[in-house]
């Protein structure tokens, strides 16, 4: 039987006490209660992405707040083990082994690590273990931080080819405006396509502990639906919310997956990888790449930007300056510059590999 894969993300706001902002063991218990029936059902495989480390650490350290990045990192270092210990004890009563997985953005950007993470998760799921993922806050300096766990959860869902991503938060879905600011705002039940009219609905963060508010959730939903994954934003406080959602009950806001979506490799290219260079290409090459699904060949390249080796991720820029695709380049920047400078060589360059093979290329436009 093909099991459905579900990534459930629980935000800081749903794991903490609203007045103190500290981790609430009662709320953690509530999340475990909602997960229990799904875990028991052989139709599903679950990965939990849980925030809460900073809140747990602040509680243990007696800190009223953690504002600077080093403070948050220190609080998280103290709190992550407390958080996992709490989950461990809760899941023990359900006879379920848990595993801790801590990731940074750069783990996702590196294709080998990305594949390794997938192998580990697959093995854990196969062994009936519940993986509990969080950002590795202590090593995640600004450039490699997710910051919010919504994008992390979307990338995990892409990585393991999940069918559902459920973002549990302190509000029962996406509203036409932030209901904390505009009390008569209306909940949106279903979103067919995420465009600027949807992105504009997101207001700020509601609680003192949340990060990103609806902005990061809509961004995460966008990544996931492009990859064929259905996304729901729902209230963590709703009784039996997960099973009810999986049975099709209309709770929260459902974002429909796109029908013609990227495969996992292309999704990783677009959302997971970071490009380190740009190839400026001519109109003919842009047309070949965009409309005929062709590879990028040497004669189409006009200029190279960035220092990179073969195997790096680059963006392809068309003559109008638009990034039309992202792909894995087969030559280093130095080699490409050499070929461009010695254009007369072009005629003799048949037989060289494509600069970016079509299988290693994902269109952005
Ligand atoms: N259009 C909107 N609809 C619903 N909630 C919104 C909207 N804009 C902003 N918000 C705020 O987003 C908050 C949830 O985000 P956040 O605090 O980051 O949660 P989490 O900790 O679960 O990631 C809500 O409490 C709400 O105040
Ligand atoms: N990694 C941090 C969570 C960051 C965060 O607050 O994210 P979110 O729950 O999306 O608002 C922690 O465990 O405290």
TrEMBL record:
<dbReference type="GO" id="GO:0005829">
    <property type="term" value="C:cytosol"/>
</dbReference>
<dbReference type="InterPro" id="IPR036393">
    <property type="entry name" value="AceGlu_kinase-like_sf"/>
</dbReference>
<dbReference type="InterPro" id="IPR002478">
    <property type="entry name" value="PUA"/>
</dbReference>
<dbReference type="Pfam" id="PF00696">
    <property type="entry name" value="AA_kinase"/>
</dbReference>
<dbReference type="InterPro" id="IPR019797">
    <property type="entry name" value="Glutamate_5-kinase_CS"/>
</dbReference>
<dbReference type="InterPro" id="IPR005715">
    <property type="entry name" value="Glu_5kinase/COase_Synthase"/>
</dbReference>
<feature type="binding site">
    <location>
        <position position="149"/>
    </location>
    <ligand>
        <name>substrate</name>
    </ligand>
</feature>
<keyword id="KW-0028">Amino-acid biosynthesis</keyword>
<feature type="binding site">
    <location>
        <begin position="211"/>
        <end position="217"/>
    </location>
    <ligand>
        <name>ATP</name>
    </ligand>
</feature>
<feature type="binding site">
    <location>
        <position position="51"/>
    </location>
    <ligand>
        <name>substrate</name>
    </ligand>
</feature>
<dbReference type="InterPro" id="IPR011529">
    <property type="entry name" value="Glu_5kinase"/>
</dbReference>
<dbReference type="GO" id="GO:0003723">
    <property type="term" value="F:RNA binding"/>
</dbReference>
<keyword id="KW-0547">Nucleotide-binding</keyword>
<dbReference type="Pfam" id="PF01472">
    <property type="entry name" value="PUA"/>
</dbReference>
<dbReference type="InterPro" id="IPR036974">
    <property type="entry name" value="PUA_sf"/>
</dbReference>
<keyword id="KW-0963">Cytoplasm</keyword>
<comment type="function">
    <text>Catalyzes the transfer of a phosphate group to glutamate to form L-glutamate 5-phosphate.</text>
</comment>
<keyword id="KW-0641">Proline biosynthesis</keyword>
<keyword id="KW-0418">Kinase</keyword>
<comment type="pathway">
    <text>Amino-acid biosynthesis; L-proline biosynthesis; L-glutamate 5-semialdehyde from L-glutamate: step 1/2.</text>
</comment>
<dbReference type="GO" id="GO:0004349">
    <property type="term" value="F:glutamate 5-kinase activity"/>
</dbReference>
<protein>
    <recommendedName>
        <fullName>Glutamate 5-kinase</fullName>
        <ecNumber>2.7.2.11</ecNumber>
    </recommendedName>
</protein>
<keyword id="KW-0808">Transferase</keyword>
<feature type="binding site">
    <location>
        <position position="9"/>
    </location>
    <ligand>
        <name>ATP</name>
    </ligand>
</feature>
<feature type="domain" description="PUA">
    <location>
        <begin position="277"/>
        <end position="349"/>
    </location>
</feature>
<dbReference type="InterPro" id="IPR001057">
    <property type="entry name" value="Glu/AcGlu_kinase"/>
</dbReference>
<dbReference type="InterPro" id="IPR015947">
    <property type="entry name" value="PUA-like_sf"/>
</dbReference>
<feature type="binding site">
    <location>
        <position position="137"/>
    </location>
    <ligand>
        <name>substrate</name>
    </ligand>
</feature>
<dbReference type="InterPro" id="IPR041739">
    <property type="entry name" value="G5K_ProB"/>
</dbReference>
<dbReference type="InterPro" id="IPR001048">
    <property type="entry name" value="Asp/Glu/Uridylate_kinase"/>
</dbReference>
<dbReference type="GO" id="GO:0055129">
    <property type="term" value="P:L-proline biosynthetic process"/>
</dbReference>
<dbReference type="GO" id="GO:0005524">
    <property type="term" value="F:ATP binding"/>
</dbReference>
<comment type="similarity">
    <text>Belongs to the glutamate 5-kinase family.</text>
</comment>
<feature type="binding site">
    <location>
        <begin position="169"/>
        <end position="170"/>
    </location>
    <ligand>
        <name>ATP</name>
    </ligand>
</feature>
<keyword id="KW-0067">ATP-binding</keyword>
